[in-house]
Design a protein that fits this description.
- This protein has about 240 residues and is α+β, with helices and mostly antiparallel strands.
- Helix content is about 35%, strand content about 25%.
- The protein is built from six helices and ten strands, in the order βαββαβαβαβββββαα.
- The protein is globular and about 45 Å long.
Length: about 240
């Protein structure tokens, strides 16, 4: 008799530094994964200290019964996202992907283009770490989906609470070349091919051949999907004003 094993449910949440216990668990997972892959050397803090100077939030992926607390579920993956909340001039020192210029070869004109963008409209996918025994597309897809959900939430909350603040629009990342090649040749429902721009030459970085990339989310969304999101946004704002949300 064949036994069909059910896959454990995955849940992703946003973790900020205010949640000290979960933040520390995520730091330890990142550190152990990077150490195991020989990307970093051991340190007494047991975390990636080079990220300390950046403003980040984390997307954490948990396996296990959703009825249990996160403390009683298995943390299997973390996606680190750079986000500048305050109004500042575009410069280096804001996003770790841009600051890796000594390791990633950017095209000078493309680097200037990125530095001309208002930092508050940029989200930087700084790092992804997944436990080796759980590495599969299911976990990475869940982390990316969690990121997209959080980014949409940021757009809605800024429109509601800070209408003068630029909305998240541009996504930066240092992408594995194989992933980059796969995505630029793939069509997505209601979106077609993603308008991903390569910002530099393929370079060995964090253990694989990597390409710095940027995605303009506005250009990626088709007019039809734009209308759907606009209607959804209008409904949510209407509910909020009526005190329903």
């Amino acid at each position: 008799m064949m036994i069909i094993r059910r896959k454990e449910p995955i849940e992703t949440i946003v973790v900020t530094k205010e949640n000290k216990e979960l933040w520390r668990r995520c730091e330890l997972l990142e550190y152990n994964v990077f150490l195991e892959e020989n990307y970093i050397s051991e340190n007494s803090e047991k975390r990636l200290m080079e990220y300390d100077k950046y403003e980040h939030f984390l997307i954490a992926a948990f396996l296990g019964d959703p009825k249990k607390s996160y403390e009683n579920r298995t943390l299997v993956g973390v996606l680190r996202v750079g986000s500048v909340k305050r109004k500042v001039e575009a410069d280096t020192g804001l996003f770790s992907t841009l600051d890796a210029q000594d390791q990633i070869e950017f095209y000078p004109d493309m680097l200037k283009t990125v530095l001309d963008i208002q930092p508050q409209s940029v989200l930087d996918l700084a790092a992804m770490a997944i436990l080796k025994e759980h590495r599969c597309s299911r976990i990475s897809r869940a982390l990316i989906a969690g990121f997209i959900t959080s980014a949409l939430g940021m757009v809605l909350s800024r429109k509601r609470d800070q209408p003068q603040t630029p909305q998240p629009r541009y996504i930066l990342a240092a992408a594995d070349e194989r992933v980059y090649d796969r995505f630029i040749n793939r069509s997505f429902p209601m979106m077609g091919k993603l308008p991903i721009e390569g910002l530099g030459k393929p370079t060995m970085y964090w253990g694989s051949v990597t390409v710095p990339i940027m995605l303009d989310a506005n250009a990626a969304i088709s007019p039809k999907l734009h209308r759907v999101l606009y209607m959804l946004n209008s409904c949510i704002l209407a509910f909020y004003r009526r005190g329903i949300l």
